[in-house]
């Protein structure tokens, strides 16, 4: 093995591009996983993610736990109760060529040897375009079902899952039934059912779903299980998590057992011995992809042996023993009728194509993003063109370019809007040289404010359950909010001015009563939750606890200089500058003043139960999941005992707590030879302090 190269120190330009990519990818993931309303093409997302990863590998300090490269899925929505998965649900790394699959195979061979890998065999499965679901059976009975969420915490959709006919409520069969088994799979809507659902929605005057994946997600996330039951959802299992009571040597063995218990598995899977057979499988379904009952966006390759899987392990977001090969996107042609613009949550104004509806990769498409005016120019498309459209990754539509030979002279160039389509404010780049135009009316632009309200109401922020999109629209339409600073001043007298919050006789409705109660409850959320809710650039749920622990209350944070902020472990110069910039804007600072005046605590007050300060002065990093703990509970337990819950491992880290599915922080802890504890050791550390765990600590590879 050659010498390991040392990453360079990031340049200002690299930090700026990294921050921009992070913002774009975070918003795209939120739109896709939480809103079920994707806004960028799958291939574009993958391209931007590759660029982000390359930056993080080249420059030191850019990769943080909050980076999109370290995340799985998206945060759970605020619609359903949160559920912590028994074992973390990971994502998959993608390959787009034979060479990338070959590199994945070669890495596995180098790690364990050709004989072990060949003996393991490979499972080939179709990558179902649906919604990932985690089913937990206890003593053979379905105990709960949850969406993947962020991989650690998902949404409890048990009541709705019970309406899916193909998912058994009780495991049956002649074979042994485990005391606990966690079954992973995909809920999907068949192509045939997708067409029926959309036809029914159009008949009712409602907007159709964009594709089967969104249709399945929207159907499962209904508050009324009867609506879910009316959609003929399917399910196919594709993995096993925690299992107790039986031993499994191979994943294919698990699939055989699942079939015996009445759980649907894919009839299209195949166990093969070589990469040549893998390519036969990939080529076959590449030619017959529309003969399958569900939409698919590729093929998943898995090493079958469970011991090989355990030896190869995982990264922070994906198993090393599996990879998803994505087919090249399908392409069709259609007429570009118009190019319009939309404004997003951050003020970024994006052109999008309006086209004659066309069927591509199994769904009808009429709109596609064009990213920015420069991209429209680069693609060379004119309004009125016949354009090539593809479903990148078979999910998100993307305009590839014009069919110039079909032009007849009636086509015209797109002229970028000069004013915001939502509020009419003149558009401008955030700084000189930016490709994107933005609406500078960040305070009260309706579209930006609506998205900020929905964000602050999310579970990762203030968890205001009754403040959904319809409620936010109602508040804005009635003129009840100038910005989010007015939110906690709302009264019953205010809400009855909005039809959404009133009964037929003009009194406050249940919606209004619930919103006021939720707002009152939200006033005492932990300080870190408020920091997420404020929409400070780069301050997400990963770094907010670090800021909260370092400064304790909003006034101390507001008074902090860039130097003081940057000195906090895991923060850095870019984020420090963003915090100072946020408070320097008078209307933003006024949001804090209004919330404080309305009774929001915005501080971590001492707990009523005075915990012994067993961790005083210690910096603790937790990687992976610990049974019985949520991420927020871990942070609160560490801080309550005087410690600092850090998001990154450094030479200053006192202990690294290693749970299930530990990621890159474990690797860094090994490299830096930091003391490591398991879940039991962590419990002792909390109770009795560092001296009590001296005989439990591991350092490096010891």
UniProtKB/TrEMBL annotation:
Residue sites binding NAD(+) per the record: 42-46, 91-92, 125, 148, 186, 302, 326
Pfam assignment, any one: OB_DNA_ligase
Domain BRCT: start-end pairs: 610-688
Entry binding sites for Zn(2+): 420, 423, 439, 445
GO function terms (MF aspect): DNA binding; DNA ligase (NAD+) activity; metal ion binding
Keyword Lipid metabolism applies: no
InterPro entries membership: BRCT_dom (IPR001357), BRCT_dom_sf (IPR036420), DisA/LigA_HHH (IPR041663), DNA_ligase (IPR001679), DNA_ligase_AS (IPR018239), DNA_ligase_CS (IPR033136), DNAligase_adenylation (IPR013839), DNAligase_N (IPR013840)
EC numbers: 6.5.1.2
Gene Ontology cellular component list: cytosol
Reactions that this protein is recorded to catalyse: NAD(+) + (deoxyribonucleotide)n-3'-hydroxyl + 5'-phospho-(deoxyribonucleotide)m = (deoxyribonucleotide)n+m + AMP + beta-nicotinamide D-nucleotide
Active-site feature positions: 127
One GO BP annotation of this record: DNA repair
Annotated coiled-coil segments of the chain: none
Obligatory cofactor(s): Mg(2+); Mn(2+)
Keyword annotations from UniProtKB, A to Z: DNA damage, DNA repair, DNA replication, Ligase, Magnesium, Manganese, Metal-binding, NAD, Zinc
PANTHER family: CHROMOSOME TRANSMISSION FIDELITY FACTOR 18, DNA LIGASE
Function in brief: DNA ligase that catalyzes the formation of phosphodiester linkages between 5'-phosphoryl and 3'-hydroxyl groups in double-stranded DNA using NAD as a coenzyme and as the energy source for the reaction. It is essential for DNA replication and repair of damaged DNA.
Family: Belongs to the NAD-dependent DNA ligase family. LigA subfamily.
Name of the featured protein: DNA ligase
């Amino acid at each position: 093995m050659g010498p390991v190269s040392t990453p360079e120190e990031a340049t200002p330009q690299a930090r700026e591009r990294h921050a921009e990519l992070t913002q774009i990818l975070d918003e795209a993931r939120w739109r896709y996983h939480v809103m079920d309303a994707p806004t960028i093409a799958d291939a574009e997302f993958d391209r931007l993610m590759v660029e982000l990863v390359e930056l993080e590998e080249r420059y030191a300090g850019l990769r943080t736990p909050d980076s999109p490269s370290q995340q799985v899925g998206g945060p759970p929505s605020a619609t359903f109760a949160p559920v912590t998965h028994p074992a973390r649900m990971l994502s998959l790394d993608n390959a787009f060529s034979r060479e990338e699959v070959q590199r994945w195979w070669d890495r596995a061979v180098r790690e364990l040897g050709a004989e072990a890998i060949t003996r393991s065999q490979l499972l080939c499965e179709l990558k179902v375009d649906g919604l990932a679901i985690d089913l937990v059976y206890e003593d053979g009975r379905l105990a709960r079902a949850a969406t993947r969420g962020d991989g650690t915490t998902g949404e409890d959709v048990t009541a709705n899952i019970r309406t899916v006919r193909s998912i058994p409520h009780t495991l049956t069969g002649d074979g042994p039934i485990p005391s606990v088994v966690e079954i992973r799979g995909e809920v999907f809507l068949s192509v045939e059912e997708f067409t029926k659902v959309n036809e029914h929605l159009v008949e009712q005057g409602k907007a159709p779903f964009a594709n089967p994946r969104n249709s399945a997600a929207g159907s499962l996330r209904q508050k009324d299980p009867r609506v879910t039951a009316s959609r003929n959802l399917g399910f196919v299992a594709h993995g096993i998590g925690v299992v107790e009571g039986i031993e499994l040597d191979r994943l294919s063995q698990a699939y055989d057992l699942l079939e015996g218990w009445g759980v649907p598995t894919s009839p299209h899977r195949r166990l093969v011995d070589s990469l040549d057979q893998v390519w036969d499988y990939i080529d076959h379904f590449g030619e017959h992809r529309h003969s399958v009952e569900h939409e698919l966006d590729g093929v998943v390759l898995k090493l079958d042996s469970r011991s090989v899987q355990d030896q190869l392990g995982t990264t922070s977001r994906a198993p090393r023993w599996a990879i998803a090969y994505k087919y090249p996107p399908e392409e069709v042609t259609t007429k570009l009728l118009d190019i319009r613009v939309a404004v997003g949550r951050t003020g970024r104004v994006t052109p999008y194509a309006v086209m004659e509806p066309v069927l591509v990769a199994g769904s009808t498409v009429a709109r596609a993003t064009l990213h920015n005016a420069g991209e429209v120019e680069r693609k060379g498309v004119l309004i009125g063109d016949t354009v090539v459209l593809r479903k990148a990754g078979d999910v998100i539509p993307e305009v590839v370019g014009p069919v110039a030979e079909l032009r007849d002279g009636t086509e015209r160039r797109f002229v970028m809007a000069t004013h915001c389509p939502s509020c009419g404010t003149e558009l401008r780049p955030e700084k000189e040289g930016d490709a994107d135009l933005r609406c500078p009316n960040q305070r009260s632009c309706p579209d930006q404010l609506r998205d900020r309200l929905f964000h602050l109401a999310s579970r990762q922020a203030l968890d205001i359950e009754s403040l959904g999109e319809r409620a936010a629209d109602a508040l804005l339409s009635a003129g009840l909010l100038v910005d989010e600073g007015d939110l906690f001043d709302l009264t019953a007298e205010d809400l009855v001015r909005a039809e959404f919050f009133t009964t037929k006789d003009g009194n406050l409705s249940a919606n209004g009563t619930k919103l006021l109660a939720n707002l009152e409850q939200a006033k005492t959320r932990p300080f870190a939750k408020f920091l997420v809710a404020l929409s400070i650039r780069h301050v997400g749920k990963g770094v907010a606890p670090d800021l909260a622990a370092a400064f304790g209350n909003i006034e101390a944070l507001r008074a902090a200089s860039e130097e003081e902020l940057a000195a906090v472990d895991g923060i850095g110069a870019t984020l420090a500058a963003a915090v100072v910039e946020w408070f320097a804007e008078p209307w933003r600072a006024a949001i804090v003043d209004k919330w404080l005046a309305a009774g929001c605590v915005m501080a971590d007050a001492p707990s009523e139960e005075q915990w012994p300060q067993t961790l005083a002065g210690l910096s603790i990093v937790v990687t992976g999941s610990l049974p019985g703990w949520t991420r927020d509970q871990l942070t609160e337990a560490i801080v309550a005992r005087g410690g600092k819950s850090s998001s990154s491992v450094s030479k200053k880290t006192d202990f690294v707590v290693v749970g299930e599915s530990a990621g890159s922080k474990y690797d860094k802890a090994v490299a830096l030879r930091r003391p490591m504890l398991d879940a039991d050791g962590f419990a002792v550390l909390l109770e009795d302090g560092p001296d009590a765990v001296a005989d439990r600590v591991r350092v490096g590879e010891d």
